[in-house]
Amino acid sequence: MNKTFNNKAWWMVFPVFLVVAFNALVPLMTVVNYSVQETFGNNEFFWSGTIWFQQLLENDQIRDSLGRQIAFTAVALFIQVPLGLAIALCMPRKGPWVSVCLVLMALPLLVPWNVVGSMWNIMALPDIGLLGKTINAMGIHYNYTRDPVAAWFTVVLMDVWHWTSLVVLLCYAGLVSIPDAYYQAAKIDGARPWAVFRYIQLPKLKHVLTIAILLRFMDSFMIYTEVIVLTGGGPGSATKFLSIDLVQKALGGFDLGPAAAFSIVYFLIILLTSWLFYTLMMRNEAN
Amino acid sequence: MAKITIDNLRHSYLPEPKRDEDFALKRVHLDWADGGAYALLGPSGCGKTTLLNLISGLLHPTEGRILFDGRDVSNETPEHRNIAQVFQFPVIYDTMTVYDNLAFPLRNRKVDEAEIKKRVTAIAEMLELTATLSKRASGLTADGKQKISLGRGLVRSDVNVIMFDEPLTVIDPHLKWQLRSKLKELQHRIRRTMIYVTHDQTEALTFADQVVVMNNGEVVQTGTPIELFEKPKHIFVGHFIGSPGMNVMPCQVRGGKAFVEGHAVAADNAASSKGSGRLELGIRPEFVTFADKGLPVDVVKVSDIGRYRVVDTRLGENSVKLIVPEGGAIPEGKAHLAFDKAHTQIYSDGWLAGEAR
Amino acid sequence: MTLELKNVSKRVGADMHIHDTSLVFDDNSFNILLGATRAGKTTLMQLMAGIQKPTAGTVWHRGKDVTHVPVQRRNVSMVYQQFINYPMLSVFENIASPLRVTGMAEKEVKSRVGRAAEILRLTAMLDRKPAELSGGQQQRTAIARAIVKDSDLIFLDEPLANLDYKLREELRDELPKLFSGRNAIVFYATTEPHEALLFGNQTLTMHEGRITQFGPTAEIYRKPNSLVSARVFSDPPINIAKVTKKGRSLQLAHGDVTWPVAPSAARLPDGDYSIGLQPHYVLPQKASETSGALSGRVLVTEISGSESVVHIDVGGQTWVSQSHGVHPHQVGEMATFHADVSHALFFDSAGKRVS
Known about the structure:
The complex is a heterotrimer of chains A (287), B (357) and C (355).
Chain A: H1 9-35, E1 37-39, E2 45-47, H2 51-58, H3 60-90, H4 97-110, H5 113-123, H6 130-137, H7 148-176, H8 180-188, H9 193-221, H10 225-230, H11 242-252, H12 256-286
Antiparallel strand pairs in A: 1-2
Helix pairs in contact in A: 1-12, 2-12, 3-7, 3-9, 4-7, 7-9, 9-12, 11-12
Chain B: E1 4-12, E2 23-32, E3 37-41, H1 48-56, E4 63-68, E5 71-72, H2 78-81, E6 83-86, H3 98-108, H4 113-126, H5 142-154, E7 161-165, H6 173-190, E8 194-198, H7 201-207, E9 210-215, E10 218-223, H8 225-230, H9 235-240, E11 247-250, E12 252-254, E13 257-260, E14 263-265, E15 279-283, E16 288-291, E17 295-304, E18 308-315, E19 318-325, E20 334-339, E21 345-348, E22 351-352
Helix pairs in contact in B: 3-4, 3-5
Chain C: E1 3-12, E2 15-25, E3 29-34, H1 41-49, E4 56-61, E5 64-65, E6 76-79, H2 91-100, H3 106-119, H4 135-148, E7 153-157, H5 165-179, E8 185-190, H6 193-199, E9 202-207, E10 210-216, H7 217-222, H8 227-232, E11 239-246, E12 249-252, E13 258-260, E14 271-277, E15 282-283, E16 291-303, E17 307-314, E18 317-324, E19 334-340, E20 345-347
Parallel strand pairs in C: 3-8, 3-9, 6-7, 7-8
Antiparallel strand pairs in C: 1-2, 1-4, 4-5, 9-10, 11-12, 11-14, 12-13, 14-20, 15-19, 16-17, 16-19, 17-18
């Protein structure tokens, strides 16, 4: 309704376009280019059609890592979103503890990814790590470098530690923006806490939760650094997720063509899922 | 439904209030009968919302007690006080239908569905919401949403008092009239105690049987709309109620007679004013008329409000406004005014002279 | 003539926000845009200000086509319903902000801000931040910002809606004084007929994206050209009833009521009409020769101290009476009121006023 028709503003945005072009569009196009060609080095390229894509779909190894990736993202979302929401609901809305809580919550987000990996790597070591030692002391055999279950447990725990805060902060921002009158009305109507959550907080948090889920989906689907530092994708290939597989293909094998095709499929999965999820959430809104 | 007693209530938002100024509400004492329509009227920051929140239990008083039917509820939570409230901005449960919104307070109280259906249908009928019952509440207009908020209070049979916190703020003027009349009609039909908080004098006066005028955390006057209009106890009430408000001008009192700018003016309570303190004379524009002789004034401005005109005149330094009905003659330039003696009052230091406070 | 809209319309998607509109506004005029929420007042203002571009038609200012001139290059001020100020700037800097962008000398800025602050009684608050001010003071700051530069067009979009009743009264008194004598065209949007009457000047009534009438305020109030204008411009809402005129008598569609026909309507051909009668012409006592009785059951009484408003049900239709003084009626009782028929406005089946 309030559309402005002064076009000068576009010039202000122009540098951003330029940056986006160089760091997203140009590399993406290069990847598309590689994905349909074959190279034997020396900068010689031959047209190969869709062969890389066909190979990709028939490759069991990639299918496995895709399965692991989906499982990991599902587990991560399943834990982080409810947990984050729960923590946000428990946080104080006013008073001196608000800032303390917010800073505590924001801390994990400030730690660089590779540091997160090393931290957990050391902490979970069965012989000297605090976590590893404690678990073993409780009589549970735990060694994430040998045992796939322990490795999964550690990776998920690390991701939860690192990223639940993001969900918390988003939900908290959404919660504090609900006017007091809603809570007062609910009290007066005799609503139990569950009803307040179900009929006031959840509907008002819908947009925020959509964004939180999207962000967490995209990030967890692309997880790389922390896992590489922590387990290196092992033991065996127990924690070898899509991105790790991809890097191994591209850098380890120098198979530029298959790696490019892999990247494109990877990119499309994330794009399509995000788009689908977002439209579904918003379509519901319109009705 | 209940009789409400506000017993020496004081409230401060500070942890350790000492001086009088620390209190947002300075010692209020009120008695409200069961089934009455009451209004709290005053400018923003006068303490009316604080008082409302104390009654509803959203705030806990620093001092004093609140009694419902003689029972001290000062320490009870809002849900235990059995009150209902309509807020300034409509509060509805967006994801529910109108029906579910109205049924919500009953479902929370485990009323059985057949009874819920009966009551919701009856209330919807009363509020003219029947046609929208199956619609999503979020799709309604502002006045429809306010009706839902009100309906959620009306469906409950256990409600002691229904409170309104500036409920017509977001409603268009022509709908304001309708909704206000509807409210008045409902009040008359169901006879529940209702408390209406507003800064709008028309809303307060037309809705309530008794209006409590507040200023600076104090109750300035409590009375029927007619009392407040005809005999304001404080110049603040005279100014705040009525549009335009009461004309107030400095005066002297000598020998039981009032003088404004040297002209003698007959006043209702001139004899009882002792002539001490700051003396002012107050008269409402409704009780001032043009006359052949009397107070000499200059006519400065005439505003045509449609059904009447507001004439602004100058009596020396003082502005005196008067209301002239449609069709009435208005002289130009120099003119003379007559004040209706029965409605001319002397105020001493702001308070009606000769009256106990 | 200085601001002219030529066949301007605005469509957004499938919705017509402003239907084909042609208007002319004079310099140094105060124009009130009156209409309910979503009548199109804000859109019309934004079209005139250049914040929105019309779908069709042109906007002319002082003989020049400014349709495509963006708002920054028009000399325009705006005040909104919400108190919009720069939170980080002092009141002084807030008021000075439109002058700063012009690169005006500090001395001149100081004197202008000083004058604007004085008019709006903000002198003592110039060093404060907007958050430390009351609502009235915040809005006065926004208004000061609008008057500090010599704008050609000043738009006030329901500026008093969020203020206390009494503060509104004060500012209503002050505003016209602020703008008189400026060579600007002032637009003032409001939903309140009462406010329009207080300002007087000229009013433009709007309903669902159409301008229903434009002219001197009191004239529109007394002689609305259509049922729609009459409804938009009445407070309390005007009584509207279906009637059949037959010779010298008027038969109401609801209730067994027959009234005489006033001389002003005597020449109308016989037939069906709608009549509009302001509530203050329906009185508890007989006030004029040409009055018609109206008996019914009292639904609601509202007594404000100086006035009584009584709603009565006559044959299934609600009539509202607004009278001076206190006239207590018991709800549910039968009462007789007198309608001053000489003030009834007649509208034909299309809603156009015919008498």
